Amino acid sequence: MGIPLKGAAVYRWCTDEVEPHDRFDYWREVRAKGLFGVTAELERERRADFYGEFSLRQLGGAGLVELKASAYTVERSASDIAYAPGDAICVYQQLGSGGWFGGMRASDFSIANGSFATSHTDLPYRTVPLGAGGFHLRILKIPVSSIPGQDKRMRELAPRTFDDPGLAPLLGACFADLGEAAGSDEGAAGNASQASLVEALAHLALIERGVLRPGSRRGQAALRTARLSQARRLIARHLQDPNLAPNMVADLLGVSVRHLHVLFETAEKSFSQSVTDERLKQSRRLMREAPDRLIADIATSCGFESLATYYRVFNAAYGMAPGDFRAQAPEGH
Predict the structure, then answer these.
(1) Which of 320, 232, 229, 243 is nearest to 277 (CA)?
(2) CA 149 vs CA 153, 199, 227: distances in Å
(3) What is the DSSP letter of 100?
(4) Which domains does the chain carry?
(5) What is the 3-state secondary structure (H, E, C) of 273-303?
(6) CA atoms within 13 A on the CB side of 208
(7) What number is the average pLDDT over the span 71-94?
């Protein structure tokens, strides 16, 4: 998809800004053709009910699009490619009811809700949503020029599902982290993190497509970044588990305990610090969301072994007791 990366860091648009009888025509000519570089088609009798919206963010040198729209047919034809070349690797996450891709060098395929696909922008395809819900997907467009280690095979990636069972969870973790980074404001550190995630996503896609060897320097770096992302997400998912420990997360991640600690050696916080930090953040959220809930109950639900431990750790981190935080939370916390 020919999504430009110039302009505002965040750009949103929806068809509510256009008169109803003009919505699909505007979407087709200005948004689909002009912004995304594709041809959109829809039966005339269905155009009056058409709705579409999207957002575009710049993250780490890439463009992240989220798109929702009524059902219609999309084609990226040879003339579309000539009109709006993209020269980028795309990672698609299908949401909603799923979608179908066809008309390419490779076989037709469908992509289920939550699944991923990868491609180069400048190869033809056709796609339609599966089901009446229409399109809902996220697309990360990574310019080939920004990917270290050029390889002509990058430009030969026709759309295909991301099926590697070992790599798919890593891709999902990086994609989720990038989406969360899009809503944060962490300055230069956040920009560096976004760039690292984008590069890891590009290289994971190239590993899955056979363009990059996983044992190469770039492949290993991508796997380290992705495994660290997945490890952090596993920690967040198992905060209440009293057995949450390095060996548990290492088993879930499919690596040795030593390898897990090596991953965190390059991070800002160690494994144990990451667990404590996540538990504290969760407790703060619960105190805001459930102001009448007992602090002891919150501490237990976040995995702290005792109320005394929770008070000690909370005070060390924030310079106040949990009750004091709760008392002032409405005033800016």
Answers:
(1) 232
(2) 11, 11, 22
(3) E
(4) 10-161 (2.60.120.10), 169-267 (no CATH), 273-331 (1.10.10.60)
(5) HHHHHHHHHHHHHHHHHCCCCCHHHHHHHCC
(6) 28
(7) 94
Cβ proximity of 239 and 206 under 8 Å: no
Report the amino acid identity of residue 332: G
Q: Which residues make Cβ contacts (< 8 Å) with residue 182, sequence separation at least 6?
A: 57, 59, 64
Q: Cα–Cα distance between 318 and 311 in angstroms, integer?
A: 10
Q: Which residues contact 114 (CB under 8 A, 6 or more apart)?
A: 93, 94, 95
Strand order in the sheet with 52-59: 10-14, 52-59, 62-69, 135-143, 88-94, 116-120, 160-161
Contacts of residue 316, defined as CB under 8 A and 6 or more positions apart, other chains included, come to: none
187 or 72, which is more confident: 72
CB contact set of 214 (below 8 Å; sequence gap of 6+) = 207, 220, 223
Tell me which residue of 238, 306, 305 sits closest to 274, measured CA to CA: 238
Question: What is the Cα–Cα distance from 172 to 152, expressed in whole angstroms?
Answer: 26
In sequence order, which residues have a C-beta less than 8 Å from that of residue 281 and are 6 or more positions away?
A: none
**E-state strands within the chain:** 10-14, 39-41, 52-59, 62-69, 73-76, 88-94, 99-102, 109-111, 116-120, 125-129, 135-143, 160-161
Residue-wise pLDDT tens digits, 112-167: 998 999 999 999 999 999 888 899 999 999 999 999 877 889 999 999 999 899 99
pTM beyond cutoff 0.90:
no
The answer for residues whose C-beta is within 8 angstroms of residue 299's C-beta and 6 or more apart is: 283, 306, 307, 309, 310, 322
Report residue 312: phi and psi, to 5°: -65, -45
